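Q: Could you predict the 3D structure of LysE family translocator?
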Amino acid sequence: MPELSTIFVFMTASLTLNLVPGPDMLYVIARSVGQSRRAGLVSALGIGGGIVVHTLLLACGLSALLISIPVAFEVIKYAGAAYLLYLGIKTLITKENLSLNGALPQEKLSRIFRQGVVTNVLNPKVALFFLAFLPQFTDPSRGNAFWQILFLGTLFNTSSTILYCGVAWVAAGASSFLNTRPGFTKAQRWFTGSVFILLGVRIALSERS
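A: Sure. Here are the predicted structure tokens for LysE family translocator:
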């Protein structure tokens, strides 16, 4: 395990980075506003599941291997972009989007969780970030880097998941307040679909460097 001073610096940096709005936060907000608080919270947990995968890949050295192969990077990138574009277009073109009480339909929470995991795992920029960030805080003199990476990844994941759950709670609360306003449900659908599409385009245009 790294020294306490290193852990303190790592947590400070992690919290600072997590507070900067990024694709994962926007995804959670879109789910919270477009569906419900539970959907937003489950999406945050799904993102956390994706971070677990990235942490394990990094600890095993597979992240560096995948990123060093241009074709692998491109395949993952375009798969992730296509998946988000699919979710966005599906949201925009679905006509049966209103229930009897005027709310957007609720997807199964298990499906929402899987979508959160897949969205995060298929974003190669997350792998690049972990590859650049976590190893800076490992110390070869303090034991196997594998366990240090797992420890640091867990700390980062815990802080980001707590933050995203808070974001989901607030965003869903604001959505519930506005839900009584005329036309807001339609705006929810367009907001959610547009965010997914923009995130897909962002991933598709991302570069390795």
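Q: Anything worth pointing out?
A: Residues 88 and 193 are 4 Å apart (CA to CA).
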